[in-house]
């Protein structure tokens, strides 16, 4: 996908995963009875959301600390 391309455009081979990681992902997807690509698409937003939430309090503290200057 080119930079600035609209959302929703499908890309192939977004990332190459190590074979052991892919095997574990497929195993977990099989247990949940979903395709592994779908499971990956469920995991990514969850993790991205968690990562960005971790950073928000730090940014908020900085903003409040420096707002009076």
Report on the architecture of this protein.
The structure is a single chain. Helix content is 67%, strand content 0%. By secondary structure, the chain is mostly helical. It has one domain (19-67). The longest helix has 32 residues, at 36-67. The chain is elongated.
The total of beta strands comes to 0
Task: Look at the helices and sheets and give the structural class.
Answer: mainly alpha
Morphology call: elongated
Rg over CA atoms: 18 Å
Largest sheet features: none
Distance between the termini: 43 Å
Strand-residue fraction?
under 5%
**Total of helices:** 2
State the low-pLDDT regions, or none.
none
Quick overview:
With 69 residues, the chain is mainly alpha-helical.
């Amino acid at each position: 996908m080119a930079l600035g391309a609209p959302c929703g455009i499908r890309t192939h081979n977004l990332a190459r995963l190590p074979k052991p990681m892919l095997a574990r992902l497929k195993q977990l997807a099989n247990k949940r009875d979903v395709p592994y690509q779908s499971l990956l698409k469920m995991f990514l937003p969850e993790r991205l959301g968690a990562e960005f939430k971790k950073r928000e309090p730090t940014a908020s503290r900085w903003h409040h600390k420096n707002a009076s200057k």
